Amino acid sequence: MAFLCDAFKAATNVLLLPFRAAGTFTYKLYERHVMPFFLYRMSKYYNKKMCDMKKELFRTLAEFRQPDGQLTVLEIGCGPGTNFQFFPPGCKVICTDPNPGMQKYLRKSLENDENLVFERFVVASGEDLSSVEDESVDAVVGTLVLCTVGNVTSTLREARRVLRPGGAYLFLEHVAADPSTWTSTIQHLMQPLWYYIADGCRVNQATWKHLEAAGFSELRLRHVQTPLMFIIKPHIMGCALK
Prior knowledge:
Elements: H1 2-15, H2 17-21, H3 24-58, E1 72-76, E2 92-97, H4 103-112, E3 117-123, E4 137-143, H5 152-162, E5 163-174, H6 182-197, H7 207-212, E6 218-225, E7 234-241
Parallel strand pairs: 1-2, 1-4, 2-3, 4-5
Antiparallel strand pairs: 5-7, 6-7
Helix pairs in contact: 1-6
């Protein structure tokens, strides 16, 4: 089976060579125009399926308000802003995303969530949040982000840096399936193609291991099965306290 998996992945990589040869320009057009539209449409479907889980996750945000009631949230990889509807009213939001094409759809989401105080949008990757000061936010949010960042360890290090003491990193991520299952096999077979069609997503990543090694003072993590297609059904959710 291992030989067949390796052979399939090798064949897929060969088939993808023309797309790689098409050059950076073609991919940038796809990334900045097609992908934002696709994510905006798909996020509505994802929110509908994951509404209860997201409500449960973001209900804890209110626990991290300052004594004066202020709550500042930094969202890494905010995409089209589909998490805004779950944030507590009145919280201040800072958004980062490496794709500037997301701003158009981010504005649409903000129009529907007027109870939030939008501070700014920064074009930045999760590994480099230098525009955000040390210990300046109460919570960092990342959903379906750690599967696409270039360096998970650096991203989590940056999240810890910008969090105030006692703050939390809230996460919801699809992850690798149990290695003993057919889902795991298919994840590994599909990974080369999935990476290109899903904006660099690693569908077979054991993200929980990175969170366990990130140095947070407390990690509240659950493995859950979601009502999504089988290849992304396994998820983790929870929060990590600084």
